[in-house]
What we know:
The protein is α/β, with parallel strands linked by helices. The chain has a four-stranded parallel β-sheet with strand order 1-2-3-4, with helices on one face. Helix 5 runs parallel beside helix 7.
Amino acid sequence: MNFYNILRLWRGRIPRPLKFLGLWCMHVSGRRLIGVYLDPVLGCNLRCRMCYFSDSEKRRQMHGSMTEEQLSRCGKAFFHRALKLQIGCGAEPTLSAGLENVVRSGKEAGVPYISLTTNGLLLATGRIALDALVKAGLDEITLSMHGTSR
């Protein structure tokens, strides 16, 4: 049983000061301790009724994408400490042109687990090369099935 599994077993039972001491020790010893949740694009290619992207006013407020330089800086700042990299949290990550580079830079930084959450539409049309993402180091794909019918 490794250190991270022990922490998981004791979740909710460890006093707060002891948690902070443990986090500090992990930081000082260079252990991975964070999860990075990243939306490289703030947009979606579907308009599911329950989603904020279906509201035209919200869609006007929430738009844009990270540049290659921003993605690179984000990776350099966080990936070396990440236990998990989750790409796609509330938007559609396959709209990002640099998706393969994000996965590759995560694996190069030693992130043990990289996951992608997508509606799968651009994967199904072939606009995103799934095999290239897997070769870059993608470990998991989660398909969000909210927009399958009216």
